[in-house]
Amino acid sequence: MAASIGAAPCRTLFRRSCGKRLSAAWGLLGGARGLVAQGETHLGFQTVPEAEKEQRVYQVFESVAKKYDIMNDSMSFGIHRLWKDILLHQMNPYPGTQLLDVAGGTGDIAFRFINYVRSQREYRLRQKLKSHQNLSWQEISKSYQEEALKPLGGSQVVICDINKEMVKVGKQKAQLLGYTEGLSWVVGNAEELPFDDDKFDIYTIAFGIRNVTHIDQALQEAYRVLQPGGRFLCLEFSQVNNPLISRLYDLYSFQVIPVLGEIIAGDWKSYQYLVESIRQFPAQEEFKAMIEDAGFLKVEYRNLTAGIVAIHSGFKL
Amino acid sequence: MLGRATALRRGLQVAAGRTRGPDSGRGSAQPAGLDPALLGLLVCPLSKRPLRYEESSNELINEELGIAYPVVDGIPNMIPQAARKIEAEPPHPTGEESTQS
């Protein structure tokens, strides 16, 4: 597989990937997700002091920010779009919802949310008009005017990300795609959210929580800022349950993805970190227990693509 | 393509029928103001107390703790490490590291 990539760096890539394969094998066998010393945490397969992790992760995303979307498409063959669409369908937001999208970086979830709410509103408007057959033209034009004035029905999404570069890229994308209203950008830390209690209806974190140093703190903050009745949704890479797919997935992750990262984004190490951090993240059940510890109820998860990705959901009741 | 995006954006704003304060997307000539909708939502991440928006220096100020969070390009930076400690004298533009509580 490495041979098909290119001529000159081929041999070094192959040697590097051999070393990585060994560490990957160790990780899979020995349970590298084991114990770390007090005050230390995982950075992929390395162990680093906790204080360092946040800084290192920041550098990773700072370096990949501009190519983030292209890399997502290449690595997952565009399937990440389906995963995010499924998340939105599970969320099923109605117009008027206040969404907090943490680690929302380039805005994928937020844009989908706006599209969803907008089309919901149009659909309801059409249903309303259909059911009132004997409306005068004045009433009809008034309802269209209302729709034009509040196309989102009062919905709002706040995108919070710790990384300035990702937020910058996201904001540029929003302007390019024409998302002007209902969208707010904040640079903030998921472990210390700059929002008051009981503010949001839905909290989402898509492919972000595994980069947080103290996941339990982030979950507690999520609980704090949600309104009673609010929903927590987390879309994240998880453990594959099928052994055959697991082998193929590991092969792909450790052989292909860092190489793609080098070719497309010019950054091998960041994507090596990426695939390692996926392996380090707790499995579905363990993460579910962590969410329950934070106080959420009716916590469920659903696997997508054989467990490569899972959506965890919980309610603040 | 940029022209079409601008036209689309303008079209959306007209359809919306309301202006949203300083339009921070319209080129670098505009001041980087803060979105008013956000102001009601934001609190200090350390103390969870409300903040005051200072127009002149474009910062969100927590009076009690004496720190100010910068607003860059209309995006407030609410990371505690990015906050500036306010002394009794008027603020100067250079940022400093704040001491964590």
From TrEMBL, chain A:
It is a peripheral membrane protein. It comes from Crocodylus porosus (Saltwater crocodile). Gene3D superfamilies: Vaccinia Virus protein VP39. S-adenosyl-L-methionine binds at residues 106, 161, 189-190. This is 2-methoxy-6-polyprenyl-1,4-benzoquinol methylase, mitochondrial. It is found in: Mitochondrion inner membrane. Keywords: Membrane, Methyltransferase, Mitochondrion, Mitochondrion inner membrane, S-adenosyl-L-methionine, Transferase, Ubiquinone biosynthesis. Component of a multi-subunit COQ enzyme complex, composed of at least COQ3, COQ4, COQ5, COQ6, COQ7 and COQ9. Interacts with PYURF; the interaction is direct, stabilizes COQ5 protein and associates PYURF with COQ enzyme complex. The keyword Transferase applies. The gene is COQ5. Pathway: Cofactor biosynthesis; ubiquinone biosynthesis. GO terms for cellular component: extrinsic component of mitochondrial inner membrane; mitochondrial matrix; ubiquinone biosynthesis complex. Methyltransferase required for the conversion of 2-decaprenyl-6-methoxy-1,4-benzoquinol (DDMQH2) to 2-decaprenyl-3-methyl-6-methoxy-1,4-benzoquinol (DMQH2).
